[in-house]
């Protein structure tokens, strides 16, 4: 979703399917599972800026389990997604 790593649509679709399968195999509390699923769905939509808010919600839910550095990386990613071009290839 962010340069320099841009995936072909077919590769992105395969990764999203794999991510959904991975998520189904995990034992997670309901709110965390829903938040991850929402992020995956937002990624599937292909609009980078639309991923930022679900990612921020996920960060808030998993905050007690993550260290400050990990949370900072998620916040930076959300900021990059929110402030970058909406669609891949429109830089």
Descriptors for this entry?
91 residues, mainly alpha
Shape: globular
What percentage of the residues does DSSP assign to strands (E)?
under 5%
Task: Return the average pLDDT rounded to an integer.
Answer: 86
Number of E-type strands:
0
Structural class: mainly alpha
| Major sheet characteristics | none
Number of helices: 4
What percent of residues adopt helix (DSSP H or I)? Answer: over 70%
- Overall tally of domains: 1
Unreliable residue runs: none
Rg over CA atoms, rounded to whole Å, is: 13 Å
Provide the succession of SSEs. Answer: HHHH
Through-space gap between termini: 12 Å
Concise description?
The protein has 91 residues and is mainly alpha-helical. The protein has helices at 9-25, 30-45, 48-62, 68-83.
């Amino acid at each position: 979703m962010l340069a320099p790593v841009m995936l072909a649509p077919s590769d992105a679709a395969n990764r999203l399917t794999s991510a959904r399968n991975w998520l189904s195999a995990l034992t997670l509390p309901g709110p965390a599972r829903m938040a991850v699923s929402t992020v995956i769905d937002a990624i599937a939509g292909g609009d980078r800026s639309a991923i930022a808010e679900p990612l921020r919600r996920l960060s808030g839910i998993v905050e007690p389990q993550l260290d400050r550095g990990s949370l900072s990386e998620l916040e930076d990613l959300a900021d990059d997604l929110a402030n970058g071009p909406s669609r891949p290839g429109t830089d």
